[in-house]
Amino acid sequence: MARKTKSIYAGPQDEKIVISMRDVSKTYSKEAPAVSHANLEVREGEFVFVTGETGSGKSTLMKMLIRELKPSSGEVYVLGYDLNRIRHGKIPQFRRNIGVVFQDFRLLRDRNVFDNVAFAQHIIQVPGRRDIQKNVLFALDLVGLNDKYRRRTNELSGGEQQRVAIARAIVNKPYLLIADEPTGNLDADTAWDVMQCFDRINREFGTTILIVTHDRGIVSRMGRRVIEMKKGEIISDTGSDADFSGGYDGYAEENYQDVDADYNDVYAGGDPYQYDEEDDGY
Ligand SMILES: Nc1ncnc2c1ncn2[C@@H]1O[C@H](COP(=O)(O)OP(=O)(O)OP(=O)(O)O)[C@@H](O)[C@H]1O
Ligand SMILES: [Mg+2]
């Protein structure tokens, strides 16, 4: 898929800094700031947890990264965009490079799994039905849901719904994946499975991932970089993920070829998908 040609990094290309926050504060009202003098740098391919007690400013920090909120002061650079200066009309283009996962899934309840994931492809106007089909099934395969693509999302368990939401967030091959309490509504085993999906996406594709979570058990078990917030401040940061050296590989095309072949094997004897040539709307 064609990528924009401008640098996706905040700063010199060779530093590969995907997120840079410099002395960022956010005050909603006259009360104490929700985020206070935060400094944060995240490099390409990192997997970062943001933890901290309730009300410590985690969601506020996340919202500033996707330009849902503007900081009261300080600078925020994400994927090469200066979010204080980005023009309103450019925000959708900026957000196309970011996948977002919410605690409450936010799926279309009356649609099936396939449609929910395909929806993200329609938003970026992927033209070919075949491409959409391939991309959606690839994403569902990654989260282990390729056998349930016809199910309505209200027939799925919470863990399955969250995995649909992850598939939707990655189907457009984002550089950056941001999740706010993605396992907040799940039991411990399911939460761990969902976290493994994120881990796999990070390791296989080099996607930079930022996850807000309360779950200290998961955080320590995962062994990744951890940022802790308290009363709006970043009070600790274990520092860059030293393990990872892969870098973003654009979800290599050969992975798609593999998946295509798999699906042809599994569903031999005709096109099983409802998104066939005669369908309207593509
Ligand atoms: N829209 C808003 N208007 C006013 N105050 C807000 C708003 N959103 C959040 N706050 C306040 O900002 C502070 C930080 O909230 P935030 O939602 O960022 O915390 P959090 O760390 O995500 O908490 P939680 O773990 O409960 O989700 C809190 O004191 C909260 O009450
Ligand atoms: Mg929150």
Summarize this entry quickly.
The protein has helices at about 60-65, 90-95, 115-125, 130-140, 160-170, 190-205, 215-220, 255-265; strands spanning about 15-25, 35-45, 45-50, 75-80, 80, 100, 175-180, 210, 225-230, 235.
Question: How does the SSE layout of this entry go?
Answer:
Blueprint: E1 17-26, E2 35-43, E3 47-52, H1 58-65, E4 73-78, E5 81-82, H2 91-95, E6 98-102, H3 113-123, H4 129-142, H5 158-170, E7 176-180, H6 188-205, E8 208-212, H7 216-222, E9 225-230, E10 233-237, H8 253-266
Parallel strand pairs: 3-8, 3-9, 6-7, 7-8
Antiparallel strand pairs: 1-2, 1-4, 4-5, 9-10
Helix pairs in contact: 3-4, 3-5, 4-5, 4-8, 5-6
The chain binds adenosine-5'-triphosphate and magnesium ion.
Tell me what you see in this structure:
- This protein has 282 residues and is of the alpha/beta class.
- The chain contains eight helices and ten strands.
- A six-stranded mixed beta sheet has the order 6-7-8-3-9-10, with helices on both faces.
- Strand 1 and strand 2 (35-43) form a beta hairpin.
- Helix 3 (113-123) packs parallel to helix 5 (158-170), helix 4 crosses helix 5 and helix 5 runs parallel beside helix 6 (188-205).
- It is globular, with a radius of gyration of 19 Å.
- The two termini are 17 Å apart.
- The model is unreliable at 1-6 and 252-282 (pLDDT under 50).
- The site of adenosine-5'-triphosphate has 11 residues, from helix 1.
